Amino acid sequence: MNFLRDLFRGLALLLALFIVLSLPPALLGYNLGQKLFKPEALLALTVEHGLREPVLAAAWDAALSDLSTDAIFNPQTWLGRWLRAAGQNAELREQIAPRALLVETARQGIANGFAWLDSPNPEPAIRVDLRPFKQHVADGSDAIVNDALTRLPPCTVEQAAELGFALLNDLLSGGNTAVAIPLCRPPDLILPGFISTTRLALVEQLRFIPDDLLVQIRAGAGAADLARTQALLRLARFGMAWSWVGLAALLLATAVLGGQSIRGFLQWLGWLLLLIATLALLLALAWLALGRGLAWLLLPDLPAWLAIIVNGTVDGLVGETGQALLWQAAVPALLGVGALGTAFLFGGRGTR
């Protein structure tokens, strides 16, 4: 009997070590799964963190960086320059890319992502339709240009002369002039011609934006590789949702196996819960400190503007799941103290 008792307790110690090390990551995984594998939760996370004002400003700047490398009166570079100068204003960005349109695009992309996850024949990329955005900009190009120009400082007399010469040069050369111009609001005399040229440049620039944004899952992957990736994601979704339940049940079984009495069960359970709470607290603090910027490592091939939005969303994901784990760590701590206190009462009464 003593041999069996020692054997059971030795087995219980091994199980206890496994549970203490596994349950805190399982709780973190559960928190991540509740955000990543539920469409509405993921959309809310994206809207709150990926589409908030500082992130949108940085994404805007990244999207226009290739269009504003010099001061040449060329439709693309000039367009980028004045959009970049005026576009740091949130009202203009709302006019060009309304928040409702961004949210709807994000909703569509997330829905397509979950459709891909459950599809029997997955493609190598998830498609996001950008045509509503392009149509919105084309339809509102007059208002966008007028609003953007009013946000620039008015030209001085010298700047107006330079601007008029550049505009004439541009009209005569078909947009291929290389005359440097100031970044200012034209006077009324040349404003209509300038608005017309800039509006045409804005609409022309839409040709360089694809109708669909393709988010690659695995570039060049075959059907078997894609199916394997899909299966792993499905397994992760299931494991994140239910692994903590199995570990909690195993925790109770381990306490029974190691304690071998009511008081022993409560003692084992109490100490295990306190250890789990301690490790969960340490894991939450480490996750909050080191999890920021994780998207830059996981998604290196995204366009710069999209990577900024995704990274903002991931930062929000890290913050919300880490804070949830901090609160969850309090639960086993309180239960552990309660179990040890109850065990102490049993011991005071001499109960085995």
Any descriptors?
75% helix, 3% strand, mainly alpha, single chain
Question: Quick gist of this model?
Answer:
Helices cover 75% and strands 3% of the residues.
What would you say this structure looks like, in words?
The protein has 352 residues and is mostly helical. It has two domains: 2-41 and 223-349, no CATH class; 67-216, no CATH class. The protein is built from 14 helices and two strands. The protein has helices spanning 2-36, 39-50, 53-64, 75-86, 90-96, 99-117, 131-139, 141-150, 157-173, 191-205, 223-259, 262-290, 294-298, 304-349, and strands at residues 125-129, 212-216. A two-stranded antiparallel ribbon has the order 1-2. α1 packs antiparallel against α14 and α8 packs across α10 (191-205). The chain starts with a helix and ends with a helix. Mean pLDDT is 82; it is low at 68-76.
* Strand numbers in spatial order across the main sheet: 1-2
- Taking pLDDT < 50 over at least 5 consecutive residues as the criterion, the unreliable ranges are 68-76
What portion of residues belong to β-strands? under 5%
Decide which structural class fits the backbone.
Answer: mainly alpha
Overall spatial form: elongated
Give the distance, in angstroms, between the N- and C-terminal Cα atoms: 18 Å
Question: What is the helix/strand order?
Answer: HHHHHHEHHHHEHHHH
Number of DSSP E strands: 2
H/I helix tally:
14
Radius of gyration: 30 Å
Query: Helix content range of the residues, please?
Result: over 70%
The pLDDT mean sits at 82
How many domains? 2
Largest sheet: 2 strands, antiparallel
